[in-house]
User: Fold this.
Amino acid sequence: MKRAASALLVILPSIVSAAESSVPEFSFLASFLQMIAALALVVGLILITWHFSSKLMKGLPIGQQLHSKHIRLVETRYFGPKKALLLIEVGGEYLLLSSSESGLTLVKQIDMLEDVEIIEEKPEQSSFAALLTRLRQTS
Assistant:
């Protein structure tokens, strides 16, 4: 046992020097190409997963519910956090709903959309760029 340990201590420096001489120097090009290959592999796996999952999701009933023909959200107006008015078309009838923290409430059932007075917003009033332009002109 002692002979094996002493032989190992004698041979160890030569093993370390041989290992150091066999290690190639660092190559930036080789590591860059390895990184590009790994990135291509990961992106390829993501695209393959996306392709097969989209094909799988087309057959499920959940995907059909996303493209409903009978219920449509026409417009949403937010008045504050968790407070909004929703105009929804259900089977040709329009419903005005209020949404709040407590839930949804039917405000009014509108038979025809022509009954609603449509007020067009001026883009200058609602646009952030127009607001900046007005502020720049006043100063």
Observations:
- The first strand starts at residue 71 and ends at 80.
- Residues 2-57 form one domain.
